[in-house]
Structure formats: C-alpha cells, structure tokens
Amino acid sequence: MLSIEWTASSGWLAPRITPYQNLSLDPATCVFHYAFECFEGMKAYKNSAGDVRLFRPDKNMARFNKSSARIALPNFAPQSLIELISKFSAMEERFIPAARGYSLYLRPTMIGTQRTLGVGPPGSALLFVIASPVGPYYPTGFKAVSLEATDYAVRAWPGGVGDMKLGANYAPCIIPQLQAAKRGYHQNLWLFGDEEYVTEVGTMNFFAAVRDKDTGKKVLMTAPLDGTILEGVIRDSVLDLARERLVPEGWEVQERKFTMPELAAAADDGRLIEAFGTGTAAVVSPVRRIAWRGRTVECGLAEEQEVGEITKRMKDWIEGIQYGDEEHVWSLKV
C-alpha cells in the first residue's frame, strides 16, 4: 500500500510504500464520527506485451481533489500523486492480470485522522492507495442487466454532494439496492423529483440511445452534471468518443434532463434503441429492461441479444484505449 500523511502544521509528509497492513486509529478519530472520507476508483491494465497502463488518471485526480476540498480535507499536487500511483502500479505489476476484461483495481482514499469529538476541519489526514486484481464487475459477465427504477428515496439533491465520491454517499444507497436485488434486478436506477428525472444507476452513469420523435434522428443522451450525479470518468469518455466518432455518422449527443415517462414512451413507440451504464468497475454495461411503476420498460434488445451495437462499440473503443491497442492520450504507459 502507498501511504502519505498530512498535518496542518507540516503539510504532506514523505510518501511510503509498505506491505499491506491494518491502520491504527484512535476511537475518537474524526473519520468515524463525521465521515471525513473520500475515495477514487481507478485501474491499472496490462496488455499482451506486458505494458502497464493507467486510464485518464488526471480525471481521477481532479475529482479526488474536488471531493476532498468539499469536506475540508487537504488537496494535493495531481501530477505528483499520478507519479506515485504509477510507481506503485509498477511495483505491483505481478498482480495485474493480462487477460482482457481483467485489471488491477486501485483505490486511492483520504480520511481525516484528527482525534476529536468536535466538528471542525481535520488537523491531520491520511491518503492511502490499496489495490486488488479484479475481473468482470457483474458475476453474469458481459451480459445485459436489469434495473429497477427507484423513486421512493433520493440519492442526491441539487447543491448537495451527489457529484462527489464520498463514502457517505454510498451507505444510504444499499437498502434500495438490496430491495431491487430481492425482486430480481441487478441494480436500481435512481429517479429524481415529481417529474421522475433519470439520474444514474446504483454504481454507474446511465445512457440511452433513442430516435427523436419528430426528426427520427438517432440521439445518445445522458443526464447533465447538475450536482445530482457523479462526474464519471467513463461517462466523460463515452461522450467524447460519441462526439468524435458517432456525430459524423449522423448521431446527436445530448447531456440533458429526461424523465422515466419519456424513456417509457420511447420504448412504447419503438424508438428506444438501447441503453447502457458506464463506470470504472463495470466499464460499459448493457441494460435489457427497467422495472417502473409495475411495468417493464424494454430497452431495445432482442431476447437472445446481450448487447446493442452502440454499447458494444463503446466498450471496444474504451477497452482498446485502456489496454493500449489504440495509442491515445488517455492511456498513460507506466
């Protein structure tokens, strides 16, 4: 594990890479009582030639700094942490599977470590990075997942911290996710407000490919960054690739608010082409159906079909960059 301590008086201390070990923290440490904790999700990839790569680490560092600043934890120099994580990944190279779909998951985490029962900015903090080899996120493999729309609970509110990667955002989401699982769904799809705006899936951002009702033009749409969804690195990558490669084919790309009734109407009219989720863990995950208000909204896949054309192309494009098949500025060779 990589560890770096910080104090308000001395700033960041010397980084250390040590064997994985337990942390020793006082019971009064502020992270336990006031949730001074944020984290990132990254991966190190290895191709058949043995090259180790990181995917868009600058985006993770920017979000990490944004999250830590929001909860009064210290910021850091992004490039310095990228260099440390690169060195850490190179040292752990033997744990990175070379097979496509496998990688070394990296978990940078920052916690407040001041011992106090008073609420205030922590005077000390710890930034650490741990890692684990991982395979496909869903045990079903690269197959279409089913979602259950959740409107009885709220994941995030405008002006809140729903766009930050804070541990405090995740624990309250577990019960709705478990309830969806009990009813046979892989994840829940968070809706917001009386309008039932589509926001994000439990562990992914959400995309829908539809045909415009008036023009018939193909549109790839996702919810905007309005503070209620996470600023996903894969989400941003899909949008960039879509604008670069799908728009010339006649597609339109939209970041806008859309509702579950709108999505259901598109499905009823045969205009919902396909839907998918995106995230560091799942990368790109096709969606087969969404349960909503006692009905099933089919997301364009035939019964024997596991993935739509656009979902498959996005997965191939992104993984091609992650594993170095395509030389791209997003892929940092360690």
TrEMBL record:
One of its GO terms (molecular function) is branched-chain-amino-acid transaminase activity. The modification N6-(pyridoxal phosphate)lysine is found at K165. Keywords: Amino-acid biosynthesis, Aminotransferase, Branched-chain amino acid biosynthesis, Pyridoxal phosphate, Transferase. It comes from the Eukaryota. Its EC number is 2.6.1.42. Coiled coil: none annotated. One of its GO terms (biological process) is L-valine biosynthetic process. Its cofactor is pyridoxal 5'-phosphate. PANTHER family: BRANCHED-CHAIN-AMINO-ACID AMINOTRANSFERASE, SUBGROUP IIII AMINOTRANSFERASE. Belongs to the class-IV pyridoxal-phosphate-dependent aminotransferase family. This is Branched-chain-amino-acid aminotransferase. It comes from Cladonia borealis.
